[in-house]
Amino acid sequence: MKSEQCRPVLFDHDGGIDDLLSLLLLVRMPNINLLGVTITPADCYADDAVISSRKLLAMTGNSHVPVSEGTIAGPNPFPPEWRAQPKMCHAMPVMLRTDETDVPVSTDPAHVFIQKQLEQSDKPVTVLMTGPASNLAQALKERPDLIEKVEKVVWMGGAVEVNGNVAMHDHNRSAEWNAYWHPQATKELLSCGVKVCMVPLDATNAFPVDRSLLHTLAEKNTPVSDLVGQFWAATTTAIPSYEFTYFLWDILSTAVLTIPEDKMTIETSLISVSVNTPNAGQTYLDAEKGSSVSWLKSTDVDYVKAMVVHYLSGEFLVQPERF
Ligand code: AGV
Ligand code: CA
Predict the structure, then answer these.
(1) pTM for the full model?
(2) Where exactly are the structural domains of the chain?
């Protein structure tokens, strides 16, 4: 199914509900050769993320794709309620019925796993990252020679011209959570010279998980769309003490690998990262000292929603037609 002209992709995620749905979306999009899945113990507990990732790979006929757990922890932990929430994903019946034990788990920590995968690939690799930047930043800090093996990094993170989503007592709400969890890693990633396309809140704010999206998915009435709808249904109540809306943050970032260029507005700006309170993790425009970074400003929202629903519908073992 995965032929030679497919582009090699490493997926680094942090086990949230939309990270897991992003894994499902990624393996169902065309022309992707998934080399491996690495996990950051950020917006999840790593054990849960490993189990759910292996099950989703097994269910979709991708049992050959190895999973690796990250060992690096950022200084600003996610709220424990958010980290525990995705446990319900591997408690759902179709997930419980799936045996994940054939899917290999690497003995290397994620940053070493990433180094080995980049080294072994004969083509430059696209890195999709939907959690904090710690694994990749560490991998490239230790091995700057591998930067040339990265085609580009598509990263869900940051907030450029809009407010962030961190609401902590010592923070002024200017940062997005993935950037805030490990501000130093964010700074290293954006300044190390690797080509980055950020998918910040500027673009993801247009994609709340709302009733109309849930209805559209429900009407598809297929095994894949039903599981996706169940995962998203769990996001509609669990977090009101922090925030009332869940967004398609990671889903949009994953979709960027396939969205045609004329359906997106991408800017390139000089951007710096703060590592101190009260704005740790803020990704701000800085014409003097910033690094050149591409970032997704907006998309054709209806097109992207329709594309996402298309690839997230059907049978688990049947690759969807091209949208
Ligand atoms: O800031 C968005 C990132 C995405 O990678 N994550 C969730 C997505 O996986 C953190 C986050 C922000 N608000 C949240 C988050 C919420 N209300 N619940 C769980 N995670
Ligand atoms: Ca995430």
Answers:
(1) 0.97
(2) 7-311
Question: Are the beta carbons of 94 and 193 closer than 8 angstroms?
Answer: no
User: Hey, whose CA ends up nearest to atom 1 of ligand 1?
Assistant: 177
Rounded distance from Cα 130 to ligand 1 centre (Å): 10
245-267 in b/e burial notation, b at 16+ Cβ within 10 A?
ebbbbbbbbbbbbbbeeeebebe
Q: Which ligand 1 atom lies nearest to the CA of residue 131?
A: 5
- Ligand 2 center from residue 3 Cα (angstroms): 29
Cβ of 207 less than 6 Å from ligand 1:
no
Kindly state if the Cβ of 244 falls inside 6 Å of ligand 1: no
150 token code pair: 């990265």
Strand-by-strand arrangement of the 32-39 sheet: 67-69, 32-39, 7-13, 125-129, 150-156, 196-199, 291-299, 264-273, 283-285
As a whole number of angstroms, the distance between CA 306 and CA 323 comes to: 9
Ligand number nearest CA of 40 is 2
Per-residue pLDDT of the chain (323 residues; tens, 9 = 90+): 445 579 999 999 999 999 999 999 999 999 999 999 999 999 999 999 999 999 999 999 999 999 999 999 999 999 999 999 999 999 999 999 999 999 999 999 999 999 999 999 999 999 999 999 999 999 999 999 999 999 999 999 999 999 999 988 889 999 999 999 999 999 999 999 999 999 999 999 999 999 999 999 999 999 999 999 999 999 987 555 566 689 999 999 999 999 999 999 999 999 999 999 999 999 999 999 999 999 999 999 999 999 999 999 999 999 999 99
Q: Find out whether the beta carbon of 156 lies less than 6 Å from any atom of ligand 1.
A: yes
Q: Which fold has domain 7-311?
A: Inosine-uridine Nucleoside N-ribohydrolase; Chain A (3.90.245)
Q: Whose CA is nearest to atom 14 of ligand 1?
A: 246
